[in-house]
From TrEMBL:
Residue stretches spanning the membrane: none
The Globin domain, residue ranges: 1-141
Gene Ontology molecular function: any one: oxygen binding
InterPro entries: Globin (IPR000971), Globin-like_sf (IPR009050), Globin/Proto (IPR012292), Hemoglobin_a-typ (IPR002338), Hemoglobin_oxygen_transport (IPR050056)
Keyword Transport: yes
GO biological process: hydrogen peroxide catabolic process
Pfam families in alphabetical order: Globin
Name of the featured protein: Hemoglobin subunit mu
Family: Belongs to the globin family.
Amino acid sequence: MLSAQERAQVAQVWDLIAGHEAPFGAELLVRLFTVFPTTKTYFGHLGSCLDEVALLNHGQRMLMAVGVAVQYMDCLRAALAPLATMHAQMLRVDPANFALLSHCFQVVLASHLQDEFTVEMHAAWDKFLAEVAEVMSEQYR
């Protein structure tokens, strides 16, 4: 459970990247596929040669979902239920990948925001993304 201060820090970071979901998301995907190449198996629709437009589109969709999670921190389960169901039942994504994605996302945040992404913000985002990953994984039980 996030404290009020952690919620504020998550929202503050989101305010810094809102409107830039596509490039942040594309960079996140490239980093994910590079560092954890087995995750690419779930993205066959992106093709064997990563197309920049496809990366931008899918990256934007992913980060828009993170934006929904930020907006509905108090009711993550309800807000992410359709997405969690789709990933578990239709796409059958290995739930361990949500933690890998969270890790890569924090690296992207740190590389872009640098000094603005304080240790406290990193800790708040780590906790927040762990909650998102848990919600996304609940449909597998």
